[in-house]
Inverse folding.
């Protein structure tokens, strides 16, 4: 099974029915799979904080939600993560493409990469890093953990995980 | 009429309606005038009321009213295309357009100048966009909630504020009683 489908199946098996996305080149396949899956309502958002608002509403409406985004969006979502997701204690799996790591061709991406883990750590956000495809074996447990503890949880997925650029 | 007059007039109409209230004075006024478990008060996160309400409307069946502000819609302008392209016929977005950032002391917004949020919403693809005078707002909201079509209402009112206490309720309590109300309405 492709890694895109492993991820989407993980969401579906954990009853995540509402997924918002902002694209990254690396996330193209997984976004496509979300769009095609009959059990997922895929709602593209225009900015990641907007997407987190959509997820908060869907969660309160009884649907588990998740966001798929690029690590460059962490800056614009800090206020939302802190004053909405964390303050009201809502679960939010965040599948994040970790741009700017080994193999990165675009120099600018390295600039946010060096801040990514530090920012997540500063926000006390549990953070997992998928580097090898087998790391996705933990995806199911990470989702269960997220909905157990009602926190935003970050899953950083680097270029090696997605199979290069 | 100012925002608090509209909220005062609106309160009895929306008593049991799932209502997402914008940050600052709209939430504080709603809380003071008629606190209900069906109200979700935003204590922060300027701009996201319309997004939270849309997610909620798409996820369940009950009608959802969002009481938003012009400044907040301007800060999260990307919300309007998302609303237009993800039609939820149980969703009513009321933008109280007082032409100012009321909650921070009525600094003017562009919506009070050359920018028409009504036209922006239409250009974004929203189908039922109604601009109304403050005086007509309650009737327009009533009709929208009674109908079965997604509606965006831009209520043009004067800027100005009344004195209201801050909300001291814990956010988890706000969310918990709101979610219980949502679940009961969908049972
Ligand atoms: C990111 C951010 N910037 C600024 C503020 C301060 N702030 C709180 S409410 C508000 C005004 C909102 O204006 P509007 O949506 O028009 O609502 P009104 O108070 O006029 O009803 C501002 C600027 C904030 N809370 N968050
Ligand atoms: Mg205003």
């Amino acid at each position: 099974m492709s890694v895109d489908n492993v991820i989407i199946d993980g969401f579906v098996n954990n009853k995540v029915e509402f997924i918002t996305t902002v694209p990254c080149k690396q996330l193209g396949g997984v976004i496509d799979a979300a769009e095609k899956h009959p059990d997922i309502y895929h709602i593209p958002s225009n900015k990641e904080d907007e997407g987190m608002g959509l997820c908060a509403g869907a969660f309160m409406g009884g649907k588990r939600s998740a966001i798929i985004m690029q690590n460059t969006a962490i800056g614009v979502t800090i206020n939302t993560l802190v004053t909405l997701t964390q303050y009201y204690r809502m679960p939010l799996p965040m599948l994040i493409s970790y741009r700017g790591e080994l193999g990165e061709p675009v120099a600018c991406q390295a600039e946010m990469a060096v801040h990514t883990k530090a920012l997540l750590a500063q926000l006390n956000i549990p953070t997992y890093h998928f580097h090898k495809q087998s790391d996705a074996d933990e995806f199911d447990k990470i989702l269960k953990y997220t909905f157990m503890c009602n926190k935003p949880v970050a899953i950083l997925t680097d270029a090696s995980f997605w199979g290069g650029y | 009429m100012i925002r608090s007059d509209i909220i005062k007039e609106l309160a009895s109409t929306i008593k049991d309606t799932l209502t997402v209230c914008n940050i600052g004075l709209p939430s504080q006024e709603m809380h003071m005038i008629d606190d209900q478990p069906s109200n979700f008060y935003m204590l922060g996160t300027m701009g996201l009321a319309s997004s939270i309400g849309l997610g909620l409307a798409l996820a369940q069946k009950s009608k959802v009213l969002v009481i938003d502000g012009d400044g907040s819609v301007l800060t999260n302008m990307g919300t309007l295309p998302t609303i237009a392209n993800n039609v939820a016929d149980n969703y009513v977005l009321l933008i109280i357009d007082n032409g100012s950032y009321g909650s921070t002391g009525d600094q003017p917004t562009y919506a009070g100048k050359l920018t028409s949020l009504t036209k922006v919403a239409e250009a974004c693809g929203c189908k039922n966009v109604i601009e109304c005078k403050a005086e007509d707002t309650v009737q327009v909201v009533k009709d929208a909630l009674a109908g079965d079509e997604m509606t965006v209402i831009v209520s043009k009112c004067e800027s100005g504020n009344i004195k209201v206490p801050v909300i001291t309720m814990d956010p988890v309590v706000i969310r918990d009683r709101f979610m219980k109300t949502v679940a009961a309405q969908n049972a």
About this structure: Strands of chain B lie at 18-21, 39-41, 64-69, 91-97, 100-101, 107-108, 129-133, 151-156. The domain at 3-186 of chain B is CATH 3.40.50.970 (Rossmann fold). Chain B has one domain: 3-186. The interface with chain A takes residues 20, 40, 42-45, 47-60, 76, 78-79, 81-82, 86, 171-172, 174-175, 178-179, 182-183, 186 of chain B (CB under 8 Å).
